Amino acid sequence: MEKAILIGVQTYTSHSFEERMEEMKELALACDIEICMSISQNLEHPHKKYYMNPGKIEEVKRILEDQECSMVLVLEAISPSVQRNLSDFFDCEVMDKSALILEIFASRAKTKESMLQVECARLKYLLPRLQGSYKHMDRQRGGSRNKGTGEKKIELDARRIEGKIHFVEKELDKIHTQRSVQRNQRKKGMVKSVALTGYTNAGKSTLFNSLTHENIYAANQLFATLDPTLRSLSWSGVGNVVLVDTVGFVRHLPHELVEAFHATLEETLEADLLLHVIDSHREDMHEQIAAVQAVLAEIDNQVPVLNVFNKIDLTGEPPHIGYSETGKPNRVYVSAHEHLGL
Asked: How much is the pTM?
């Protein structure tokens, strides 16, 4: 495992700072990176050039050398210029939260669709970071017969990346069209669809397995599921239903990933009902709920939502149904692992 130092800035307006730092450690572990030390600083807002104040950055560099770490992880998404400044100063790889999540997605992607989605997001993340990534190649190309200054290597590579993004997006469009046809066929057959959504590691896949008596991969790790998994089952009083397990969310999910995984999220938008699976054992449960709601709002979700408070075996709460003021069920308390309240 690679060794890294995690740095984070706690602003006066930031919430759940410790939980976010712990989440970054889990993300790092999922990427086979060992966090040797976590260093934080209280600031009104992150430093424009170095994320942390220069004095603190000097301290991080000394610790980096003492601990023999080869990488620095940054708690949140940072701009390409800040990433370059930190990388030059530390003389090592610097990864922000977006890059770390992309690495995990790349290692977990198995199907053609998810691999294309990750590749698209990775290229869009890389494009604005080309400048400074290879200064020795930042020279202009031209010949004796060419007038003008010619083209820089960086401009050529940028065009190549843009061309590859265009190609990947065309391939994804083909898959999206196939999915759309499949959804329309299900609708013609009057088959209702129910999609599981929620924060990553909330127990969506475990609930999916419990309801369908399947054995799809479910693990106590972030982003265990990338591709939507569909299974048909019969529910009393409802009839045939297609249950869909989808990718989980995190706070401040990189926009590139939301955009790239729009096809997967379309299964959520096209469903007749969303089961928002919530880890009721988490202290930061409400922040996780807000993070999921933010992503659903970003993709303009209009589907009815039933909140499923999972892991009641850890909270001691009995299985029961909660109702809205109008008398409609809007929340249910279950344990997917212990098959309580299903």
From this structure: 0.67
Strand partners, 140: 152
Residue type, 3: K
Q: In 3D, which of 25, 35, 39 has the Cα closest to residue 1?
A: 35
Name the residue among 26, 10, 27, 28 with its Cα closest to residue 18.
Answer: 10
Q: Which residue has the higher pLDDT, 259 or 80?
A: 80
Q: Residue 99's closest CA among 120, 116, 77, 82?
A: 77
Give the burial class of 64: count Cβ atoms within 10 A of its Cβ; 0-12 exposed, 13-18 middle, 19 or more buried: buried
- Residues 288-297: pLDDT tens digits? 898 888 878 8
CB atoms within 10 A of CB 86: 24
In tens, the pLDDT along 4-52 reads: 999 999 987 767 788 889 889 988 988 889 999 999 999 999 999 999 9
Closest of 197, 209, 163, 162 to residue 292, by C-alpha: 197
Q: Residue 82: which of 70, 68, 98, 65 has the closest Cα?
A: 98
Of 120, 59, 121, 61, nearest to 94 by C-alpha is: 61
**Are 299 and 265 contacting, i.e. CB atoms less than 8 angstroms apart?**
yes
- The mean pLDDT of the chain is 82
Sign of the torsion angle spanned by Cα atoms 25, 26, 28, 33: positive
8-state DSSP, 75: S
96, two tokens: 């922000």
